Give the backbone structure.
Amino acid sequence: MSDDIEIIKISDFIGAEIRNCDLTRQTPEMHAALRRALAEHAVIVIRDQNISPAHHAELSLGFGVPQNRVDPATAIHGFPFMNGVSKNEDEFANIGNAWHIDQTYQADPPTTTLLVAREIPERGGDTLFSSMAAAYDALSDGLKATLDRLDAVHSNERVVARNVRLQGRTVLPPATHPVVIRNPITGRKSLYVTAGYTQRFDGWTEAESEPLLKFLFQHGQRPEFQCRVKWNPGAIAIFDNSQVWHYALNDYQGRRRYMERVTVKSFSIADSRATPDDALAPSTEDA
Ligand code: SIN
């Protein structure tokens, strides 16, 4: 049997299942193949893995530098960069129940998320992903050229104020990021704005920004940009947190769901700006 991983696309625009991959026997070559698959497909799912938190940590290090900002209450013992994402039988709100990119409010945000399914309800609790590269490609050349030149201001202020699961979290100073970034491996452009955290375009008021941001937040939810991941225990999804939005469905009331998550910085969002000069360059969709 070849050591090469097998890649099976989930949908035309986003997502792939990876076969022939045993994460209890990781190698630098396997990590490199998975990094390429992630850049290409933005979400990769590897099922039926009997992996320990140590394997999860090893895999995460293959993708970048782990973020140490985990909630101390949910950090997994021995791994200060790993946290549990849980919803118990008696809880109503889950984490991530709106389209979002993780932590864009940080000055130097994480670009890859590695999520391991540990306990999954017998039905429900799927996660949706939407490709912001496909969303960008579908815009007019005129709007692309405008967005390529813009930065946006992000903050966790509103999300902390309204999410009961985040009470007590620190509100960080606002962070400014490019609105359009380029993936450093494929060169493909994607939108880097997210409802909840993106408050306004830099140099614009919130009132001026709102109509265009509202359009982008709706545009990015088009079903054809999406894939849906159904979980089973031992499945791991690695997603490119720079070029996808994700949405954790909350359709499993009365049942427990428990995931373990690491976010890593694989590259710098600030260094990935799409320059105005390439605003009308040919699409790199097939890269
Ligand atoms: C999250 O938003 O990071 C949680 C995703 C999930 O639990 O499916």
